[in-house]
Predict the 3D structure of the following.
Amino acid sequence: MPEAKADVLQGTLDLMVLKTLDAMGPLHGYGIARRIEQVSDNLLEMNQGTLYPALLRLQQKRWITAKWGVSENNRKAKFYAITEAGRKRLVVEAENWERIAAVMGRLLGGPQEA
Amino acid sequence: MFSLSSILARIKGATRHSATAGDLGEELSSHLEMLVEEKTRQGMSPEEARRQALLTLGNNTQIQEAYRDQAGLPFFEVLLQDIRYGLRTLRRYPGFTAVAVITLALGIGANTAIFSLVNGVLLRPLPYAHPEQLVSAFSTFKTLQNFLDGSTSPPDFRTLRAQNHTLSGLSAYYGAAWNLTGGENPERLQSLVVSADYFSTLGVMPALGRNFLPGEEHWGAHHVAIVSDSFWRTHLNADRDLSGKTLTLNGEAYNVIGVMPADFYVERPAQLWVPMAWKPKDNDDTHNNYFISMFGRLRPGVTQAQASADLNAIMIGIAQQFPENKGIGGAVRSFRETWLGDVRPALMVLLAAVGFVLLIACVNLANLLMARSAGRQKEIAIRSALGANRTRLLRQFITESLLLSLIGGGIGLVLAYFSLRLIPSTTDILPRVDQVRMDHWVLLFTLCVAVVTGILFGLMPALQSSRLGGVNENLKEGGRNTSSAGNQRLRAGLVVSEVALALLLLIGSGLAIKSFAKLVHVNAGFSSDHVLTFTTNLPDSYDPQPDPLRIGAATRVAEFLESNIARIEQIPGVKAAGCVSSLPLHGENWGKLFVALDRPIPPSMDQLDHIQYRSVLGDYFAALHIPLIKGRLLNDHDRKDSPYVAVVNQTLAKKYWPQQDPIGKTVLLSPPESILPPGVAPPGYHAQKFTVVGVVADAHYGNMNEAPLPLVYASVLQHDSNMSPSFAVRTDGDPLLAASSIRSVLKQIDKDIPMARVMTMEDTVSNSVAQPRLETILLGLFGALALILASVGIYGVLAYSVSQRTSEIGIRMALGASRSSVLGMVLGQGLRLTAIGMAIGFVLAVALTRLMASILFSVSPTDPATFAAVFLVLAVIAMLACYLPARRATKVDPLVALRYE
């Protein structure tokens, strides 16, 4: 059973995956993980036990699709692509995230009370 | 949170487990390879790269687990897991499982059976169109509350039907028996004579053929009949072509015009319906004869009060025109209430009682589960150590108790099905009991009861067990199963509530048993052993010209009765035979106006007293052993031309001549001419004067639980008689053996007159108390069940507590406590709980048995003797239940007990 703490992370991960697929086009799981790690300057370490269930969840919600294909190194791999519904979701989620980030920023950056 | 498509995808995932897992395996291995390639590119050796990659990727199984959770429906998978595990646990504790399932099957089964009765009798809608609009309409009598159940007279009915503006339909009916001839043997048919609009007011049409036409209410056009589905199947070969089908009823041909649907039924079971028609100047069709029942349909928006006011106003109008109607009003009441209102309290009491039994069962099971969960502490600890959180454990326990209650409920359903078949489906016991089925409502009820029961008895132990998560102390080898003080208090509370409920139930059943005992010991006023009774039904040809002025029965009727009695008395083994207009326990159904001439005559009709009347002939009193108190009985010398004499019952004698000798008093059984309004009585009317010659004991004509009404007997030859006389025959041996000889006697006299309702007087008596008997048996059963469950509960808790305290008791004994002081300590603990429970139960009983008052006969709902007896029984049983574990405590060997430590 996912704990309450995991829900926030889950939502964040969904957003990162959607954004990555939106920016980069179809990618395999490894590619997604590498891309997110790179962008975060390796601050984030992707846990595959979270990534693959998240990819499945996004498929179940019809925000991404999956298709077997061949990687740049001629290896069989599953490629994920964002759908139209996924893009709409991404816009909503991104706005949401920015709003929260702004609030958090104001809250944490504001004058501290002793 | 879940969208439909993702749920569908998950269901697909749940069913395609292995395929998904294979897919993921492939995906993960390609992920791994890519990782290895990259690490190699960064300059690691291939072995090092693979090692690092595996470390980064993490535990493969865990990923697969997480993935599978997302792919499938974890809730249902966990549920299946819980169920599998639960079933395994139940198998592991077969004793516990058996006890629990049996308790639940009995508890839920009893609830299902009683609910089936409530559902079939009370809840199921009456099988008519918009039954909520139907009302019974009846006459109200200023001087009398219950005169003939408020029947009305044919002319009053017609006026009410024509003049009311609150009812969209008003119909009337009365029960009649018809002799069907033409077959091998004559047959007596139960039928209803109805107004032509009877079926349209009910809103049910014949399934085959047509309804009555309004014109068929007129004399001469009335030879049509509508038959029941079963009659159509048994007597008309279920032939769909009704043309030319006729029935010979009382010697006259009736055309069958319709067949009612198979599921149609009315309050009085009937095989056929014929229209109500009166020949001109028929004495029944006057304002003096109140014998037909009415029901109507309220117009939309009309209340019962408005309809009552409407009918009452019309009745008052009638009384202005016909002075003999003075004092008679009209009213309506819900049809359903009239039909079923009387049984509601009894059924509700039964339902409440059976609900309490189930509650006690729940308490017992909760106790058992708590005792068992103490034994499962280690298992629970292991499960929580392996990562099961509290919710997960709670779910596991609730699943287990739900499994138990659903299995118990399933068996209970079967038990209920068979126990319902033990209840004879005669409407003597309960109205509509023949309509009781285990329909979808009953199944739904059972399911709900089972689920609620499972949660009820499972929740508290589950909450408690799931809290016992302290891994360390529980896993320690030899860790003692000490239950907390809270646990003990909870279990003590359960015992207290169990005892309280048991006391309540036992008092309820005690009261019912006492009431029933009083009822069957009511002095019936006759003796029912060795008496055969039957009823005949004489066709109109026996009295072709009814004459209201005639004294005594028509010649042919009198001859028929006299020769019948004489020939029956000649049959070997017959000691006495007589006839009566209607038998004891068949109802207080013939009222007459009464005047005792030694008192002032009331100035008007509506101030005359009503009494009950029975016409008799032959050795009626001897046949039924109705004792003579004073004077003489009617005999063969009291004939048409001899002085008119009457015999009265004790109630009448006490009411009118409390301090005097009734013998020799003169009475009237019809209104004196002096107060009759002109034109009401036929010319030449003269009230007959009767001399009281005897007083007999009060025989119960109405229900055993009602006081007999004042009653006068007169000879068939000297006063009014009816056309459906009953016979009572006293025999030496088994009265039913005489039936065939009597039937052949009857056949010799008139082959077309059937011998109907042949039964022993003992059966009649037994049927008359069938409903209270059923109530008493059921309440007694529930009380016994409650007693057993409660004593098992007390025993269980004490036995458990003794086993928990073995070492403490051991120490006490090692320190010198005597066996008797240990015995006293344990006994005291049990008896204290019992006493508290009984005190609470007493308060409950005082508050709740009031609701039983209407089903109790001459027993107060707080009858001190019953309360005392029940207290004693429960106390003794509780003492016994406490004694067994207490004695075990005294057998504790201090050495063994301390070695435990």
Remarks:
- Chain B touches chain A at residues 3, 5-6, 9-10, 23-24, 26-28, 30-31, 33-35, 37-38, 57-59, 62-63, 66-67, 69-71, 74, 389, 391-392 (CB under 8 Å).
- Chain B has 27 helices and 21 strands.
- Residues 477-481 of chain B have pLDDT under 50 and may be disordered.
- The first strand of chain B starts at residue 134 and ends at 141.
